[in-house]
Amino acid sequence: xxxxxxxxxxxxxxxxxxxxxxxxxxxxxxxxESTCLRYELHLDNKIPTRFIMxxxxxxxxxxxxxxxxxxxxxxVAAVGDKVVKIDVAELSKLA
Length: 95
Prior knowledge:
By secondary structure, this protein is of the alpha+beta class. It has helices at residues 16-31, 60-67, 70-79; strands spanning 3-11, 36-43, 50-57, 83-91. The protein has a four-stranded antiparallel β-sheet with strand order 2-3-1-4. The two termini are 12 Å apart.
């Protein structure tokens, strides 16, 4: 069964552009991972500091492997002090 991830990233107001750039940079190499089924970056239309990443991975092992990649680690380092909050939900589809 695939694993769905919804990551909500709230940028500091004065770092929106830097957070967006870092998030956009991680999309192509993440999509290129063989176990990545979906990797989409969205901006919340009502909260301009909020980015939402919708992901689908082959399984939990695929997500853990993604988290160990250089491009994911670079993202974490790039946004670490520029965000207010990051919330990651890992979901299993029921219906």
